[in-house]
Design goal:
Blueprint: H1 25-30, E1 49-53, E2 61-65, E3 71-76, E4 82-85, E5 89-92, E6 96-101, H2 106-114, E7 121-126, E8 131-136, E9 141-148, E10 153-156, E11 161-165, E12 169-174, H3 178-183, E13 189-194, E14 197-204, E15 207-212, E16 217-220, E17 225-229, E18 233-238, H4 242-247, E19 253-258, E20 261-266, H5 270-278, H6 297-302
Antiparallel strand pairs: 1-2, 2-3, 3-8, 4-7, 4-11, 5-8, 6-7, 9-14, 10-13, 10-17, 11-14, 12-13, 15-20, 16-19, 17-20, 18-19
């Protein structure tokens, strides 16, 4: 391998020039053909890369960039397919092809619509060369990649699914307990994502991950639960104390998650932000505050 800095010859697998110390890996990538797209392969060593994964044969490579408005950039080679809900793509190279379809007929379309996704899904693939397709967050938050094993599943909030490898199955998940549907903050229906393959979720705000052991549990304000493993038990619990219920601002119920298993919590649920913004929106015919104790009955029942 020839060094582009000093011209010295080095071993084929060398990373640094033995004469001048310059990095050789970047030079090797520069000489690598990226197919008809005419773009360089993903540079997974730049400082702004948050997380990267180099796939083996038949597996996609990706990187996650950004801070509060992240984007996942996926590199495709022939035989590799990534799919997303209709309208989820941000940009792609010219050699990437799209195929929009129902994803399994009318029944699957209805199930996706009920879970908060679009009726149709879109496959992205390349016929030859190497292509790049990117998916960006719709809301300030984080992108979480999951590399699921065969048969491994995670339960996520509605509308959290961003994209996944073709081998990943997206389906509905109905909550078994009646109370969790009424008062759990996310309704009866969530999404279930099953491997094998890579799947990407978008969550609101920052992400906090807990690995709960058997018997350990957390009480979570409704709407903050973004995802959990299937082994985690989910229920609702009533806030204790009349003054806490009336004046605490947390509502009547909290979500209760009990281990074993991992849970992923989001710091800024979109619904909470929308309610906060609504307080500052002008109202037709509004005459200002009427005074007295301000108790929001809707927030009391549904949480803050």
């Amino acid at each position: 391998m020839k060094c582009q800095e000093c011209g010295a010859e080095n071993e084929p697998n060398a990373k640094f020039c033995t004469s001048c110390g310059a990095r050789l890996q970047a030079a090797a990538r520069a000489g690598d053909s990226s197919g008809s797209s005419g773009l360089m392969p993903l540079d997974t060593e730049v400082e702004h890369v948050q997380r990267e994964y180099v796939g083996s044969q038949g597996r996609i490579s990706y990187r996650v960039d950004g801070t509060t408005l992240q984007v996942v950039t996926i590199e495709l080679e022939p035989g590799e397919v990534i799919y997303s809900e209709s309208g989820g793509m941000a940009w792609m190279t010219g050699n990437v092809e799209m195929k929009t379809h129902s994803g399994g007929g009318l029944g699957k379309m209805v199930r996706r619509a009920v879970s908060g996704e679009s009726l149709f899904i879109t496959d992205f693939y390349v016929g030859q060369g190497r292509g790049t397709v990117a998916f960006s967050c719709e809301f300030p938050g984080k992108i979480i990649p999951f590399n699921l094993k065969p048969g491994e599943s995670i339960i996520v909030q509605k509308d959290a699914f961003m994209c996944a490898e073709k081998s990943v199955v997206l389906d509905l998940h109905f909550r078994k307990r009646l109370g969790t549907g009424f008062f759990g903050g996310e309704g009866f229906i969530m999404q279930k994502i099953t491997g094998p393959g890579l799947a990407f979720l978008e969550v609101d705000g920052e992400v906090v991950e807990y690995d709960l052991q058997t018997g350990q549990h957390l009480n979570v304000d409704t709407g903050h639960l973004a995802a959990m493993e299937t082994s985690v038990d989910f229920d609702v619990t009533m806030v204790k104390g009349f003054r806490n219920i009336l004046l605490g601002g947390e509502g009547l119920f909290l979500a209760s998650v009990r281990g074993p298993g991992k849970v992923w919590l989001q710091t800024m649920p979109m619904s909470k932000l929308a309610r906060k913004i609504a307080q500052f929106m002008p109202h037709v015919g509004a005459k200002g505050s009427s005074g007295g104790i301000n108790v929001d009955l809707g927030g009391l029942l549904g949480g803050s």
